[in-house]
Amino acid sequence: MSKCVKVKVVKGNNLVVRDFFSRSSDPYVLLKLGPNLGSTRVVDKNLNPVWDEEFRFPITDFNRCSSLQLQVWDKDTVFGIDCLDPDDYMGEAVIDLKPLVKGDGFPAQGKVVLYASEGNCLFKDSVIVEHAEGKRVQDVCLRLRNVKSGLLYLQLEWTL
To answer: What stretch or stretches form a coiled coil here (predicted)?
Structure first.
């Protein structure tokens, strides 16, 4: 039987402008964990979108899906109709799920701090908390790569 990682895409902050006439963007997030994909809805004309959308990704082989990949895109439309042009790239981030799922060295009903560094996409330190109900929860703020600015806020949950 497979277990699931629950990913809540909370919000974006200070995303890059891709629609130059409106000085805004119409962002959405693509998620990939192993072979599983997800997508948030598009938030029109907003550089600080709030999605508050949850996704559940089954994990059958942790070795194939230990990293959650996220990409932010700008939906291109004209008068509400999809354009033929491809959507515009707004950045990406990756988060390693091993500390959340495997819990190596985790104190019983305790917490572990993951430190932000140049080697990861964490914008600030992130704490994984193990609850008595048998789950681990991690609030994450990720720095988007390959763009001038942008943060992505997530909440991750793993049921033991």
So the answer is: none
Residue 76 and residue 87 in contact, taking contact as beta carbons nearer than 8 Å: yes
> Which H/E stretch holds residue 7?
strand 3-13
Q: How many CB atoms lie within 10 A of CB 131?
A: 13
Closest alpha carbon to 147 in 18, 28, 50, 45: 18
Q: What does the alpha-carbon distance between residue 115 and residue 93 come to, in Å, rounded to a whole number?
A: 16
CA distance 28 to 90: 9
For the record, the structure tokens of 37 come out as: 């994909």
- Distance in angstroms (rounded) separating the CA atoms of residues 26 and 144: 16
Global confidence as pTM: 0.91
